[in-house]
């Protein structure tokens, strides 16, 4: 084991760290189940058989990875089921209404999950760090709205209000899934080595990376008031990825 991982253990033993890690694992379960349910719902919008097969394969892989999330949560919670723990939140998530809506949703939700996971690859809980690394090894899929169809859709000014509404809706869902910035638990998770960055930094990375997509589509990054969510107090200019 290299020096970077020398202090890692399968799971923390003190109650404060275990309690915070339970919340972190619930957040990961929420994001993974959200993507899985959306993929299951959205397969009907894909007209080509090969697209459906690729979509289903990614769904199956995600669900297989989810078994590890279940296992870690059960070990942290005396056998409790993580699906039951997040069911109430899951019931509030909307579903895409069209192929374009599905594409925007998956693009944003996958980027949000990856932004969150990068903060856990060096988590002192080795079992959860392994989950993060495994998820990040999966290359981004092709079902994102950067193809010609979506750009062409946005090229017509009359379509942009609807495109912006889709972006705003899924941005809100993604930001909620990343957690509340600057909470006491957020700071303690970083101090205890459960996460390498605060939620505000994860949100900054996620939003900053959207600049090329928004520019190509002539859309804008809405403010917190428009989205109805809490954002970090100060955010650097959007970065190109």
CATH class: Mainly Alpha
The quaternary state of the protein chains shown equals single chain
**Biggest sheet overview:** none
CATH fold call: Ferritin
At a glance:
The chain is mainly alpha-helical and 241 residues long. The chain is 62% helix and 0% strand.
Explain this structure to me?
The protein has 241 residues and is mostly helical. It has a single domain (8-227), classed as Ferritin, core subunit, four-helix bundle (Ferritin). It is built from eleven helices and no strands. It has helices at residues 15-42, 49-76, 82-90, 99-117, 126-136, 148-155, 160-178, 184-191, 199-208, 211-216, 224-227. The longest helix is centred in the first third of the chain and has 28 residues, at 15-42. The protein is globular, with a radius of gyration of 18 Å. The two termini are 32 Å apart. The model is unreliable at 1-6 and 235-241 (pLDDT under 50).
What's the layout of helices and strands?
Layout: H1 15-42, H2 49-76, H3 82-90, H4 99-117, H5 126-136, H6 148-155, H7 160-178, H8 184-191, H9 199-208, H10 211-216, H11 224-227
Helix pairs in contact: 1-2, 1-3, 1-4, 2-5, 4-7, 4-9
Entry keywords:
mainly alpha, Ferritin, globular, disordered C terminus
């Amino acid at each position: 084991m290299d020096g970077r991982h020398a202090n890692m253990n399968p799971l923390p033993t003190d109650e404060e760290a275990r309690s915070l890690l339970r919340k972190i694992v619930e957040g990961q379960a929420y994001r993974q189940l959200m993507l899985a349910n959306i993929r299951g719902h959205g397969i009907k919008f894909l007209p080509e058989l090969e697209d459906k097969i690729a979509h289903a394969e990614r769904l199956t892989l995600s669900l297989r990875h989810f078994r590890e999330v279940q296992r870690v949560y059960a070990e942290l919670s005396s056998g409790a089921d993580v699906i039951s723990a997040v069911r109430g939140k899951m019931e509030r998530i909307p579903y895409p209404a069209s192929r374009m809506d599905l594409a925007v949703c998956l693009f944003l939700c996958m980027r949000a999950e990856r932004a969150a996971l990068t903060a856990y690859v060096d988590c002192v809980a080795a079992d959860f760090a392994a989950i993060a690394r495994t998820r990040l090894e999966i290359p981004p899929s092709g079902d994102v709205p950067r193809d010609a169809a979506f750009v062409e859709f946005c090229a017509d000014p009359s379509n942009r209000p609807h495109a912006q509404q889709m972006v705003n809706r899924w941005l809100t869902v993604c930001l909620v899934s990343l957690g509340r910035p600057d909470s006491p638990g957020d700071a303690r998770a970083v101090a205890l080595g459960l996460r390498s960055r605060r939620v505000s930094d994860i949100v900054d990375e996620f939003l900053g990376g959207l600049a090329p997509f928004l520019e190509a589509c002539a859309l804008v990054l809405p403010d917190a008031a428009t989205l109805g969510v809490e954002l970090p107090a100060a955010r650097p200019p959007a970065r190109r990825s």
